[in-house]
Design goal:
The structure is a homodimer of 419-residue chains.
Chain A lengths: L1 E7 L1 H4 L6 H12 L3 E8 L3 H14 L2 E5 L10 H9 L3 E3 L1 H14 L12 E3 L3 E3 L8 E6 L2 E6 L3 H19 L3 E10 L3 H7 L1 H5 L5 E7 L2 E10 L2 H19 L3 E3 L6 H11 L4 E5 L5 H6 L11 E5 L2 H8 L3 H7 L4 H11 L7 E7 L14 E8 L2 E8 L4 H29 L1
Parallel strand pairs in A: 1-2, 1-3, 3-8, 13-14, 13-15
Antiparallel strand pairs in A: 4-5, 6-7, 7-8, 9-11, 9-12, 10-11, 15-16, 16-17
Helix pairs in contact in A: 2-6, 3-4, 10-15
């Protein structure tokens, strides 16, 4: 079956936002085995939306429309699809109530226009939106399928995961299964290089690599008659990739994130953790705390941004900072050791670095970061040199710290077993 | 003049890469005052590329094709445009020499296919590529303009800056200028409602609203003969919007973020700041620290995630937490007061809430967050109820905390002036 996308929104045409939804949806559909030949972007204009729908319906079987489901007059995707298909809309009482509850909870006034989102095309399947007020819809008519999805990425992605993927799977002939091998500490070109022989001889399963904020994901996709046969095709390939990259691989679980893999490891082994951050300023703790259940292992963290706070809170001597500067392996190590004075956590991580935008009087290059990690008192420090702007350096530092935590904990665990 | 984009590349359809070029080119064209109604993405397929070119040439004056200028058989953008326009190609000797020099410098073997890139459509203008081997081309024929640009962002962006923008300026009538009014604490539908009269009578300038992670941006765009006249059109509209939304507006500066507006306010008034975070776990400090120059006002922050840490670090009595729970206005207030014991900052912000995914034994609903903000000892607490998953609740809490900080600081400043 041929699928095609229509992205609706003047903000895309004006260059106000990057169309990451195109990337996300293309990925989803190609991994499910659907062929996609065309994508269109069109503004919030009735005539042009209708034109685009007509063109897409001529050449594709499944038309996914993204955006234009909001409450304002500019939002008209649903109205245009119904006009094209000659379908009426009726008020959906459940959605109406959900919208009222949403606004009541937020303590915000509800306008008449908000009720527009509760209108449901006749004969359509309604897709609940747990992260916003715009439901999605699937409409099957005259052998064509129209899928209408909201524009905000978090709403789109959750709705796609919960409803669209399971639905599309029923439309695909055969079964497509995929496993994503998630790794850190290697760059994409190196991964491609080390998998070249496998990529060159791929037919089924196929192998594709993706770059993701300091991580590389290798997706292995198999097509077969049933789930069991697909998994049988996947297993040896995934095993081979895992064995080639060893400790770089942190998970093959679709739901896992780098931080959840670290928190899982801590919880499973009854290890508590604390963070002392300088340049990352709380982002490392912030990512750890995004994992539900982290409260079992994370009690407190500190952001020691100034030199004074490194002295006062962590007891690092003025002389040491003067001699080595705050961005040094020595200070990263002393941050870990100093933290143990106020927090008896089993794992202590420190980050200190120069995120930019410009270098300071110390001549340390922008992007230089030191990460310290102590497990039960055994402290290691690593030096990193990241490229990019302040935001990118800080994000990379957080990812590297999580990956280093994982490695240090695994090392400690294997030593305790062997020792 | 109407401009439209065709992005050529199967990698876009498969979801292997994000189409950041669409964002870049849309921005360039809209800021030059060109109207863009459509964008298409098409794979590396002769028939479908020709179809898309034909469709685009029917409805637009300037067609910008991006990608498909490489040396391989898959690259056929130039060939397709020439086929559509019935134009021959000839070897361009300068480009041929440049390609030979490029490969010699890199010490790489040159294949016959590489010479394909030196073929120049008859009557076209060649755009030199200083970052790769594929030149770009501008072809004017039968009242239409075709601009062919390479796919790699660095090549595209430099070529656009050097040749395409100067060329397009000669084709643009007038200047387009825009101002974005950035606000917080209101939802998009409310903003539209309160601007409805202005939006309804808009022609020039135009007014458009955008939702952005807890913020609403209103972009006002004016078209005029020159910069000065455009700004004259913008000024009264921007002023009116600002007066309607008062404290909700945090900036009209393109470069400003909510956090930079808070940090600027702190720096300008010589106010230091600290954070004590529970559910946001460092993300608030992390966003503040993303602003260069924050070190002048932010020295240290704490993440007091567990009840024990709220007791130990902030001195909040066990009895208080037992009585009110950790997610309460009382605890938010005591977090601010407790923080002053170890940090004499002028502004102290606390966040405590239940981010989910599930409620705990206290029956507090997921999404309930209390934010405390003290300025020079005067502490306020606000209750919020956010919708969405753990990540969204936390992100919303951070945005609301920043916005509350801004309001409290402004209030303090106006009181000091009046008092």
């Amino acid at each position: 079956m041929k699928v095609e996308f229509i992205f609706v929104g003047t903000e895309l045409l004006l260059g106000n936002i990057v169309n990451t939804n195109a990337f996300y949806l293309s990925n989803v559909c190609s991994s499910l085995g659907f062929v996609c030949y065309n994508q269109s972007v069109v503004g919030d204009n009735r005539e042009r939306i209708l034109e685009t729908i007509e063109m897409s319906a001529k050449r594709s079987d499944i038309i996914i429309l993204n955006g234009g489901l909001g409450p304002t007059e500019d939002d008209m995707t649903k109205e245009c699809v119904c006009e094209y298909l000659n379908i009426k809309m009726n008020m959906d009482e459940d959605t109406k109530k959900a919208i009222e509850a949403y606004f009541e909870k937020k303590n915000m006034p509800l306008c008449d226009s908000n009720y527009k989102q509760a209108l449901k095309p006749e004969g359509s399947m309604l897709l609940k939106n747990n992260n916003g007020t715009a439901p999605g819809f699937i409409i099957e008519k005259d052998g064509k399928i129209f899928i209408l999805l909201p524009g905000p990425p978090i709403e789109l992605e959750n709705m796609t995961k919960d409803y669209v993927i399971p639905y599309l799977k029923t439309k695909s002939d055969g079964v497509i299964n995929s496993v994503t091998v998630k790794m850190c500490g290697v760059c994409e070109s190196e991964v491609e290089n080390r998998l070249k022989d496998m990529i060159d001889r791929q037919t089924n399963p196929t192998i594709a690599t993706y770059c993701k904020e300091g991580e590389v994901h290798v997706r292995v996709t198999a097509k077969a008659e049933d789930e069991k046969s697909a998994n049988k095709l996947l297993r040896p390939i995934v095993k081979e990739i895992k064995s080639r990259f060893g400790v770089n691989v942190y998970s093959t679980d679709d739901e896992a994130t780098l931080e959840s893999s670290v928190v899982d490891l801590l919880v499973a082994n009854n290890l508590t953790v604390t963070t002392v951050e300088s340049c990352t300023g709380g982002l490392l703790a912030g990512r750890l705390i995004n994992v539900p259940g982290v409260s079992e292992v994370f009690k407190e963290g500190r952001i020691t941004y100034s030199n004074k706070s490194k002295r006062k809170t962590l007891g690092i001597k003025k002389r040491i900072i003067a001699e080595h500067t705050a961005v040094s392996a020595e200070v990263a190590e002393l941050m870990v050791k100093g933290a143990s004075a106020f927090n008896k956590a089993d794992v202590i991580v420190s980050v200190t670095g120069l995120a930019g935008p410009s270098s300071d009087s110390t001549n340390i290059p922008v992007g230089r970061v030191y990460i310290g990690c102590g497990v039960k008192g055994n402290v290691k420090v690593e030096e990193y040199n990241f490229a990019g702007n302040r935001e990118k350096v800080r994000a990379n530092a957080v990812t590297s710290a999580l990956f280093m935590m994982r490695r240090c904990i695994l090392e400690y665990l294997s030593e305790s077993v062997n020792g």
